[in-house]
Each structure stands twice: as structure tokens, then as C-alpha cells.
Specification:
This protein is of the alpha+beta class. 41% of the residues lie in helices and 18% in strands. The strands form 3 sheets. It has a 7-stranded antiparallel β-sheet. A 5-stranded mixed β-sheet has the order 10-9-8-11-12, sandwiched between helices. Strands 13-14-15 form a 3-stranded antiparallel β-sheet. A hairpin with a 5-residue loop joins strand 13 and strand 14. The chain is elongated, with a radius of gyration of 29 Å. The N and C termini lie far apart (69 Å).
Length: 408
């Protein structure tokens, strides 16, 4: 499978100018090709093919008006045209039902939060012996290597985020030697807001609430930004401070998701989760808390890590009544309001925790054998049968007196 490895890049002042020039040229080529296709569509003409757009780009670079396009690598410009083709393909596949629907390609702006360019193998880029990344017509970039690449990368993408940070990401092919040793652990996961995740073994993982904790600072920086004059240098500095505060929250959330997903995959042979309707829940009054939790990101990490390390990942339907069925006897006693966190099963008398009960039912719905259900619920008080063998009265009094308990 293919994975993407990202590393922080620290370009010099001259290299930042060269990257800004490459970002601008790639954005111009994308917008120009999109304008050509949209003009043809408005005139009722067929879609202009990619080969024709490439020929027009090559011819325009020889004109005095667009000679500045030759100041950047030609591979960057051609990859920008490929990005446009991918955007159109995704749009049409969404209309045909082959993938989730998405909007038509839109024009890019220099004020977008993310600017990126891509170099393929034929661009001549390489990783130097000293660890620097050599890019054509940019130079040797200093890279903070946090880990080694498992194989030779096929492409490198250089991106700049809203906080002004630069990253180099590599697409590499991983082998089949990443499979972890088999383990007997199997777990079902119920996601929530009070607790981020509740496992079928009774473990409750608290929600970090990264956005809620940083809200005070974010509001302060946002107020300072709103007071700055538009198009001023002070406003640019304030905007970067706001962006940095947001990326710190996003980075902390991503790190939490990676650590949790890796632990779950390493400790369990099979992981089952519920397929939640996150888009629908995000339109409720709990939208901020749901976006802060980032459930979808965790499920995506669990899915690709399970495929990489040889684990089983199962999604159950969102309409499965996990909170209505007793995990001990399997009796369904109907829906319950959210404020009911614990109840007693009317059939078997077990005292059930709402979240743990749901997590166990998630595992059972996925076909996992979970034995922790009966250990995590408290059985109700059931009178002893008359024919049950009792304890000798003298033994009972002796044990009760030794323990300091009065026996009636």
C-alpha cells in the first residue's frame, strides 16, 4: 500500500521566494486551464482534452507575455494540469454515483490557506547525502527528518500552510513485512463526547477537548485581528498568529488520534466501530464539540493501520440499536433519552452502563467474541432459591465475627 510521509522544511529567504514563484505559476496554469474548459462548456463545445491544454501551455511559455512561466520547473506546471483533470474526474464520478458527491472545480486564490506544488521522479529532484532536499529551480532545502523512509519515494509535494510553515511530503510504497504478530484481543468502540471512546472491556478514554481548552486564546487573537486595518502589515501578522493558534490545536488533536489508533491496533487483532453520521450530527447544537472530537479522522487512521499491520477492522451500520439491547441477555427494551446513563435490565436484572453496553454490542454486531460484558455489568439482586445448598450457621457466625460483620 502507498503511504504519505510528511516532514517539516525550513527554506531560506531566497528559497521562500522561489517557492512562492512556483506556487503562483502552478496556480495560474490551473486557473487558466479551468477558464478554457469553462468557456468551452458555456459555448456548448466538448471538454477540451488534457493534451490540448498541455500544448497551449508549452506555446504560451514562448510568448513574451508569459515567458515568466519558464522560471519554474515544467513538471510543476504539468502536475497542475493533472490536478485539474483529477478534480474533473472526481466531480463526474460523484455525479455517476461512483464516489461521494463533490463540487465542480473552482478557481484557486493566492489567499488560500494551503499552497502546494508537486515534483515527480522525472523532475530531477533528489535527497542529498547530507539530508537536504534538492528541488529544481528552488535549491537545497533543509529538512527535519523525524524518521527514515521505508522505500524510495515516487513523488514529493512541497506545501505551505496558513501559519507559514513548509512541509515536504513523500508518497512511498510499503512492503508486506509490517504485519504485527497475532494477538487474542478483540475490542468494540463506542465514540462519544463526555468520553471520547469507550471500549468493550470497560475502559473509558476521556475527551481531550483541544479546541475548548484553547478557545480563550483563540478568541483573544481573533479580536486583535478584527481591530487591525485591512491590507496592513499588522493585520498580516495578526492573521498568522490566529493561524498558528489553530494549527497547534489541529496538531495536538492529530497526535492524540495517532497515539490512540496505534495503541488499539497493536493490542487487538480485531477492532469494531459504529459508522456514525458525522455530517448529520455536525448540523446540531453539538456541532463544535463534534468537530473538536474528530471522530472521522480516528476511524480513517484505524482503517488504514489495520490494513497495514494485518488487523481486522469492521464498521457496523449506524442504525444498529447498540444502546437499546442488553449485552447480557440480548433483550431489546427500546430507546432511552441521553440523560439515562445507567439502567437495570427488566429481563435479567443486570445493571448496565450505557456506554459500555453500547461498546459490547458494537463488538457483538461485528461478530467479535467479547467476554468482558458480564464482568463489567452489575447483576441485580436476585433472591436465592429455596433448594440451594446453604452454609452451616456456626461457620457463618464464625466468619462474620472475624470480619467484623454482624450476622442476623
Amino acid at each position: 500500500m502507498q503511504l504519505r510521509y510528511s516532514f517539516r522544511v525550513y527554506p531560506s529567504a531566497g528559497q521562500r521566494m522561489a517557492l512562492a514563484r512556483a506556487f503562483g505559476c502552478a496556480r495560474f496554469v490551473f486557473n487558466d486551464a479551468l477558464r478554457v474548459r469553462e468557456t468551452a462548456r458555456a459555448a456548448g463545445l466538448p471538454l477540451v482534452p488534457s493534451g490540448e491544454l498541455s500544448k497551449r501551455l508549452t506555446a504560451s511559455k514562448k510568448t513574451p507575455e508569459r515567458a515568466w512561466l519558464g522560471e519554474v520547473s515544467s513538471v510543476v506546471l504539468q502536475q497542475s494540469l493533472r490536478d485539474l483533470d483529477t478534480a474533473y474526474k472526481n466531480f463526474f464520478d460523484g455525479l455517476r454515483g461512483k464516489r461521494p458527491r463533490m463540487g465542480a472545480p473552482r478557481f484557486k486564490s493566492r489567499k488560500d490557506n494551503r499552497q502546494a506544488i508537486r515534483f515527480t521522479a522525472n523532475a530531477g529532484w533528489k535527497i542529498m547525502a547530507g539530508g537536504k532536499l534538492r528541488l529544481p529551480k528552488v535549491g537545497d532545502l533543509a529538512v527535519k527528518w523525524s524518521r527514515s523512509l521505508p522505500s524510495t519515494p515516487s513523488t514529493v509535494t512541497v506545501a505551505k500552510d496558513a501559519a507559514g510553515r513548509y512541509f515536504a511530503s513523500f508518497v512511498v510504497e510499503t512492503g508486506t513485512d509490517d504485519t504485527l504478530p497475532e494477538t487474542a484481543g478483540q475490542v468494540g468502540i463506542d465514540l462519544g463526547l463526555t468520553h471520547f471512546a469507550i471500549l468493550s472491556d470497560g475502559t473509558k478514554i476521556d475527551s481531550p477537548r483541544f479546541l475548548r481548552r484553547a478557545e480563550k486564546k483563540l478568541k483573544r487573537e481573533q479580536r486583535r485581528l478584527s481591530r487591525k486595518a485591512k491590507a496592513s502589515n499588522n493585520r498580516t501578522k495578526a492573521r498568522i498568529k490566529v493561524a498558528r493558534a489553530h494549527v497547534r490545536v489541529a496538531d495536538a488533536r492529530r497526535e492524540f488520534h495517532h497515539q490512540l489508533s496505534t495503541r488499539l491496533i497493536r493490542e487487538n487483532q480485531a477492532v469494531a466501530v459504529e459508522d456514525l453520521a458525522v455530517k448529520g450530527l455536525a448540523r446540531t447544537r453539538m456541532a463544535k464539540s463534534i468537530h473538536d472530537a474528530g471522530w472521522s479522522a480516528l476511524l480513517t487512521m484505524l482503517e488504514y493501520k489495520a490494513a497495514r499491520y494485518g488487523r481486522t477492522f469492521v464498521r457496523i451500520g449506524r442504525f444498529e440499536p447498540t444502546s437499546q439491547v442488553c449485552c447480557v441477555c440480548g433483550v431489546k427494551d427500546g430507546p432511552k433519552p441521553l440523560h439515562i446513563r445507567e439502567w437495570t435490565c427488566g429481563a435479567c436484572g443486570a445493571v448496565l452502563d450505557r456506554d459500555i453496553n453500547a461498546a459490547v454490542n458494537v463488538a457483538k454486531a461485528a461478530g467479535l467474541a467479547v467476554s468482558a460484558c458480564r464482568a463489567r455489568v452489575r447483576p441485580g439482586s436476585v433472591p436465592a432459591q429455596r433448594e440451594e445448598a446453604g452454609t452451616h450457621p456456626k461457620v457463618s457466625r464464625a466468619s462474620g465475627s472475624q470480619a467484623g460483620i454482624s450476622v442476623l
